[in-house]
Amino acid sequence: MSKVKLQQLLRRRLQLSQPAFRLERIGSKLAGSIISETFKGKSARQRQKMIWDALDAELGADSVHEVGTLLTYSPEEWNIDLPDAPEAKAI
Q1: Which domains, from first to last, does the chain contain?
Q2: Distance of CA 84 to CAs 64, 72, 80, Å?
Q3: The pTM is what?
Q4: What is the Cα–Cα distance from 35 to 73, expressed in whole angstroms?
């Protein structure tokens, strides 16, 4: 799976609000961080369930072979302004 395909899958399945992705390939898996307003107010457990439910729905059992650890943050937790936000500054 490519970074672009994973980003598209998660955007579509989770309807992510203004997502920013920091993904890298580690061996045969993609891993990294996803920053989105969608995660604001949700517990770490809820966020992980959202991610893995989306991956399982799309990829089935192959999801664990394609994707490694994905950490989730709200923009405030990551301490960035997202590029599409009206008040965003240049990154």
Answers
A1: 3-78 (3.30.300.90)
A2: 31, 18, 12
A3: 0.80
A4: 5
